[in-house]
Design brief:
heterodimer; A: about 850 residues; alpha/beta; seven-stranded mixed beta sheet; six-stranded mixed beta sheet; globular; B: about 250 residues; mainly alpha; two-stranded parallel sheet; 11 helices
């Protein structure tokens, strides 16, 4: 007869009683110190820092032994990521020790783009670049030096250099990323361009196309909180998206909708909430600048049936989800970043979605739809060490991009219109004498990448181009000088992201290993260039070392720089979550000298230095003087007179209310072979910067076109078949540059059949189609000469697999009022190849 | 700690001497056997040290004017001829010296530096794994420390498991062999061990690959020269030319 479990328990108890007091019998003694449980790296020095494999900036611990990075794990002290990290973060060693990194300054020796380089010294690079920049600045036209940035997590030093130089020609990629979301938020609440649902305390998360489980800028902090709410609170997650993303896949319900109809669905839900009286009318009427009844009349035109016809989502589902969302209030929230807004009508989509929250009164509530006024660290508590240069006074035609009235409408929130930069350079709208590319690959990552390549190759349009990057890219290929950049594991930064916990914090990115090769960061490069350029620039870089600069920067933190080096992050324990900030009472000193405008109840005090208009500081609600929102009315602006006025000034009417405007290209009668091509990102990739990571490429390295089986049947296409995809520029009604509805480009790719995509959609992922960067980035298309039978590089088993550059097909396609690139609206024709 | 130049020559100096220099005025290139390798006194380590130092220097960095001129001397031409090639292409020799050096710097960059170096001379990359450094780096670093060596400040390498360092290390060990008997004996053992456990485990295959992808001398010849050097040295030490570990062995 065998022993049963209870017998073992008895035996264990008896043994314990018998052997007690004899000490350890198994030969092991517990020593002081932290146990390294399964998965932890043992015997390494643990160095806290901040990841930048993507832009979420999660806190990490680098395990370093004998000067070599072994592994990366999450930093539990980071209040945003709370010890979690993703596959990209874990793959850090493969990026740091990438054998095909650019590790030396290089100068081209043949024609631009010929690929012939020679190694030069840093001194030679500084001399040449410094002389170009000095000459341009001395000419009195500093705007002719253009700076093209991608992900910039070194905002302090970069702004310092560019402002000291005096150039306003700073081109970012915001219009290719989050412009519409930010514009919708600034129009509606004013004080933040970043909404942060209080997901962890929420019971219902309503998602319009946001792929937060994979590609959100706050990826890990968001997904971990949503999943925790689902596990611990039983929260429901409902996703509307044209494709079964990994976020849609982990949702309770996924509704496959036609691209660009998110806002219409939200308006129809608003209609349901209003017409059925499911709203929080009191909150809406108190805190919005538009009455609930008037809004109900406005949204009455958007019926669930109408939304169903346009979107493909059943009307009864729209009604049901609207009811569920309202019933969960105030512990419910929307999320839509990088989903609903990446369309030609994205500004309106996001306005409509945002106002859904006001209808149910969850705004700023625990478990509701929240935000934080600080998108990074508290810059009043931790001011940038002086001397700080003032901003340039000259203007840049391209950066200003006045044809899109909302792109740069908000002071201090200039968003540019990144996708038109190279078109405008080609058109000669602004002279460029020198271009610096920083951490981006616009020649591959921008829409109409072929046009970008054409411009970068033309030495008349861009006479001098230097590129700072970790890896060789399509853009570096078209540079005159390539400077080897440190990875985020070899450099310093002060950093923080919008806090999902609703309390701001600050973190330190510090080198966990010495820079590989001769790579350097801008914190070393810019001071030296400033010295070479001279003319007073050097005065803004008085520190002897980067450490000295950060000693000063982090002095206000208790324990200072030393504390930051040891912990990697600091959060003021006195600060509370930013719940319902609009309800905060103004203090007596705030009201001293203030006046209330009777018609609006807005409280004004002093003058806005930028507009020379009276400065609104709060709003009277009943007898109380409250802070209100950051909008002109100090209310949640359902009706935005500000955007209406901006539209009038630019001759482009903008509705002050959320509306649905169908996408002109999608409104035409589409033939069986006409599909809407959408773009998406994978959880293991982040633009060009992860493409050289073998560990990540091994997971995702191919991008066949997702096609619905019903569509495939109509086209006579089977799984794995080759297809020819021809894209078209938008129709003239889109008001986009070059909008003529004519073919833009054609490529061949293969089909992946899946029910997980809308029947009128062809989904092709980003992060593929590289042709340079080494054998990993180019999946073996770049030859190397491995010597032995057993180099890991030979194990690129996906060598030669399908990988196409989708951006060769995507036209420059801005939202006509904001400039946001419409990534997911391109019309294509598909035929079996 | 001895600070040595990138070529890790035993005398710690940046100068590079040809075999003729080493052997003195009375020695001539006829002393070089077929393949250009010393046989007159196979036990004399000095020429081996110098030849390895030459290979190390060519891998270490681009040619400078001094080395370029040296490679065009009759002694080197003779050595090249025995290997069936030239140290400098006839076409390049027609160019002004600056242009010639730039031309050769481009080839050096294409082969060894990148972007996308077609034949990066790092052991870790060629033999071990797709990450730069790692075990190969640790091993070389340990050896350098053990022999009280360090890389020169002006070394332009991403990792010490570079062919230049590994070849230079052997040159250094052969340099010790000419010292006092006790040291010489230890150095001789160490050199043999490094040849067997280090260079021969990856360089022969790497040099084959380099020979296939190099298009311009001296790098075409460098592959042949270094391979022949290793082969002759292995034979001298009664080692198999290819000492790669069996599959799966690290």
């Amino acid at each position: 007869m065998g022993l049963e479990r209870r017998d073992f328990l008895k035996l264990a108890a008896a043994a314990g009683a018998t052997l007690g007091g004899l000490g350890t019998l198994h030969g092991l003694t517990r020593v002081h110190g932290r146990a390294a449980w399964s998965g932890k790296t043992v015997g390494a020095r643990r160095i806290p820092s901040v990841c930048q494999a993507c832009t979420t900036a999660c806190g990490i611990i680098a395990n370093v032994k004998d000067g070599r990075l072994l592994t990366v794990e999450g930093n539990p002290e980071d209040p945003n990521s709370r010890g979690a990290t993703c596959a990209k973060g874990v793959a850090a060693p493969s990026i740091l020790y990438d054998p095909f990194r650019v590790l030396y300054p290089l100068r081209r020796t043949g024609p631009r783009g010929s690929g012939a380089w020679k190694r030069i010294t840093w001194d030679e690079a500084y001399a040449e670049i410094g002389e170009h920049l000095r000459r341009i600045r001395a000419s009195g036209h500093p705007e002719e030096f253009a700076f093209q940035q991608g992900r910039n997590r070194s905002t302090d030093i970069i702004a310092r250099f560019l402002n000291a130089y005096g150039t306003p020609s700073v081109f970012n990629h915001r219009a290719l990323c989050s412009l519409n979301r930010r514009a919708a938020l600034l129009a509606t609440i004013g004080e933040s361009d970043w909404d942060l649902g209080d997901y962890e305390h929420s019971d219902y998360v309503l998602n319009f196309g946001c792929n937060f489980a994979e590609a959100h800028q706050g990826h890990i902090p968001t997904v971990t909180r949503v999943m925790r709410a689902r596990e611990q609170r039983g929260a429901k997650l409902v996703t509307f998206e044209a494709r079964l993303s990994n976020t849609a896949a982990v949702s309770d319900e996924w509704f496959c909708l036609k691209p660009g109809t998110d806002g219409l669905v939200a308006l129809a839900m608003s209609n349901v909430i209003c017409s059925e009286g499911l709203w929080n009318k009191e909150w809406f009427d108190t805190w919005c600048n538009y009455s609930a009844d008037a809004y109900a009349r406005h949204v009455a035109q958007y019926t669930p049936q109408m939304a169903a016809e346009a979107s493909g989502v059943p009307a009864e589902a729209i009604v049901r989800v609207a009811r569920e969302f309202a019933a969960a209030a105030p512990r419910c929230t929307t999320i839509c970043n990088r989903g609903s807004h990446a369309h030609w009508n994205g500004f309106y989509n996001d306005r409509a979605i945002t106002v859904l929250n006001a209808l149910v009164g969850n705004v700023g509530r625990e478990g509701g739809w929240c935000w934080h006024p600080l998108a990074s660290w508290d810059k009043k508590a931790l001011p940038e060490p002086g001397p700080v240069p003032s901003k340039p006074t000259v203007r840049s035609v391209i950066a200003d991009a006045k044809e899109w009235p909302l792109a740069n409408a908000w002071k201090g929130k200039a968003m540019r219109v990144g996708e038109i930069v190279y078109l405008w350079i080609r058109e000669g709208r602004q002279k460029i004498s020198a271009l610096m590319t920083y951490n981006t690959d616009q020649a591959w990552a921008w829409p109409e990448m072929g046009l970008v390549q054409e411009v970068l190759k033309d030495e008349k349009l861009v006479p001098f181009h230097f590129c700072l990057d970790v890896m060789y890219s399509e853009t570096a290929h078209l540079a005159d000088i390539i400077l080897p950049w440190t990875t985020y594991l070899e450099r310093w930064d002060i950093d923080a992201r919008p806090p999902l916990g609703l309390v701001d914090y600050v973190s330190l990115r510090q080198p966990v290993v010495a820079p590989q090769g001769e790579s350097k960061d801008v914190r070393e490069i810019f001071p030296e260039l400033a010295r070479r350029i001279g003319g007073g620039m050097e005065a803004y870089f008085p520190w002897a070392s980067v450490e000295e600069y950060f000693e000063q920067y982090f002095a206000p933190v208790p324990g200072g720089f030393a504390y930051m080096r040891e912990h990697g992050v600091w959060q003021d324990p006195k600060k509370k979550p930013n719940y319902a900030p609009y309800e905060r009472e103004l203090k007596p000193e705030d009201l001293e000298g203030a006046r209330v405008e009777r018609a609006t109840d807005v409280i004004y005090k002093g003058e806005d230095p930028d507009t020379q208009q009276p400065k609104a500081v709060g709003v009277r609600v009943g007898a109380r003087a409250l802070k209100g929102f950051g909008t002109p009315s100090r209310k949640f602006e359902v009706y935005s007179a500000f955007v209406e006025q901006k539209g009038q000034e630019a001759g482009k009417p903008i509705s002050p209310l959320p509306i649905y405007v169908p996408i002109p290209d999608h409104e035409q009668e589409l033939g069986d072979d006409q599909l809407i091509m959408i773009s998406f990102k994978w959880n293991v990739h982040n633009g060009h910067r992860t493409m050289q990571s073998k560990w990540l490429q091994e997971i995702v390295h191919s991008n066949p076109a997702w096609m619905n089986p019903a569509t495939a049947e109509r086209l006579g296409v089977s799984q794995g078949d080759w297809i020819e995809v021809t894209s078209y520029r938008p129709l003239p009604a889109s008001q986009a540059p070059q909008a003529d509805g004519q073919p833009l480009g054609t490529l061949r790719t293969r089909v992946r059949l899946t029910e997980g995509v809308h029947p009128k959609v062809l989904a092709v992922s980003h992060s593929c189609g590289r042709t340079v960067g080494g054998p990993v980035a180019s999946r073996g298309s770049v030859p190397v000469a491995p010597a032995s039978d057993d180099p890991d590089l030979r194990r690129i088993w996906w060598r030669g697999e399908l990988s196409v550059p989708q951006n060769a097909l995507i036209p420059i396609y801005p939202d006509p009022i904001s400039g946001q690139q419409a990534w997911s609206d391109t019309l294509v024709r598909v035929r079996r190849a | 700690m001895t600070r040595v130049s990138m070529s890790v020559t035993p005398d710690a100096g940046p100068s590079l001497r040809t075999p003729a220099d080493v052997r003195g005025a009375e020695a001539d290139s006829a002393a070089l056997p077929s393949g250009g390798l010393p046989t007159s006194d196979p036990l004399d380590p000095t020429p081996w040290a110098e030849l390895y130092a030459l290979a190390a220097r060519l891998f270490a960095r681009e040619l400078d004017a001094e080395l370029y001129r040296k490679l065009t001397t009759p002694e080197f031409a003779a050595l090249g001829a025995t290997l069936g090639g030239a140290w400098i292409d006839a076409h390049v020799r027609t160019l002004p010296e600056d242009a010639a050096l730039e031309c050769l710097a481009v080839e050096y960059c294409r082969l060894f530096v990148g972007p996308m170096a077609v034949c990066a001379p790092y052991e870790s990359l060629q033999r071990d794994q797709a990450l730069l450094g790692g075990r190969a780096r640790a091993r070389v670093e340990a050896l350098l420390e053990g022999y009280a060596l360090t890389l020169a400040d002006d070394a332009r390498l991403a990792s010490p498991d570079h062919a230049a360092v590994e070849l230079g290390l052997l040159a250094h060990l052969y340099g010790y062999e000419s010292e006092a008997a006790a040291t010489a004996s230890q150095a001789s053992l160490a050199a043999r061990r490094w040849l067997r456990d280090g260079l021969l485990t990856w360089l022969p295959d790497y040099l084959d690959a380099l020979g296939r992808v190099a298009v311009r001398a001296p790098y075409t010849l460098l592959a042949r020269f270094t391979a022949a050097l290793l082969e002759a040295d292995a034979e001298r030490h009664r080692l198999p030319r290819d000492a790669r570990p069996a599959a799966g062995v690290r």
